[in-house]
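Why does residue order matter? Because the sequence determines the fold. Keep that principle in mind as you read this record.
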Amino acid sequence: MTSPGLLTWLTGTAVQAARAGDRELVGEMVGRIAASSDVLDLSAAARVFADLARRALHTLYGPLTTGERWVIDDLGSAAEIPHHVWALRLVTAYANGDDGLVLALVAAVAKASVDSRSQSLRSLLGYAAELEREAAQQNNHTEGTP
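Structure:
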């Protein structure tokens, strides 16, 4: 288990590094989270990363209306890489408010090797940062439009 203060710092630093495109620092911070965290710590970090993605999805596509759910339409090249699939599934579950599935996905990755945990968290944060960049670009293109 990681102390709450250290986990907060590691998670925040990883997010800042991802936004800055610093893959090396992302890898270091996520690696430290993966190596020293229990399932609750992993869940907290994963939820922070997934929330970035959820907010970006809302910017890109708008909030869901009653009865709507986010779905993974096409995995594309991610289908061949288990940690990418895990990241997409976690973001979808989180965005849909499916806390049970989020916890199940985190619990599954918590049982994996440190390297697998690290790859999964790195994929999750990378996906969230990519969505944030897309959302920022969309905002830049729509600003000043009547």
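The chain has one domain: 4-142.
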